Amino acid sequence: MKNDEKPCLSVIIPVYNEKGNFESLAKELMSTLEGIGKSWEIIFVDDGSDDGTWEELNSVAGVFSGGRVKLVRLARNYGQTIALRAGINIAQGAIVVTMDGDLQNDPADIPKMVMEIEKGADVVSGWRRKRRDPWLSRRLPSRLGNWFVSWQTGVPLHDFGCVSE
What we know:
alpha/beta; two-stranded antiparallel ribbon; 6 strands; 37% helix
């Protein structure tokens, strides 16, 4: 992809204190994105990490070829919603995929999601069935939040944290 060409696909990954996850994530993303046959960009948004995540992101960003990697660093931890918004604000792809940097979303699902969008779907959602988060501090609040958003919007999704558009 030429530097002035807009990508077809933007993958936005908000991260917070995720040092140690990027080498594996980079390999999986590279394998998936190189095989998808579309131009792409990856936007990592560091949400105020203080564990060396930013430095690791800078070093791992150099391994990607065939696309563009953008790094955004927020001054402090604002939370996932603000980090996603920061990534979405600079995304150039017609298709936007969001995923976590903690390896709980499988990059191999991206081609299937893109195919559904190309068939005419407005939104494609994943579902993190085998979450590795602590139950009380992460999974329970997520479940309650998903229920509330479904109830308010009338959209019956299981996991609003896994949405592509």
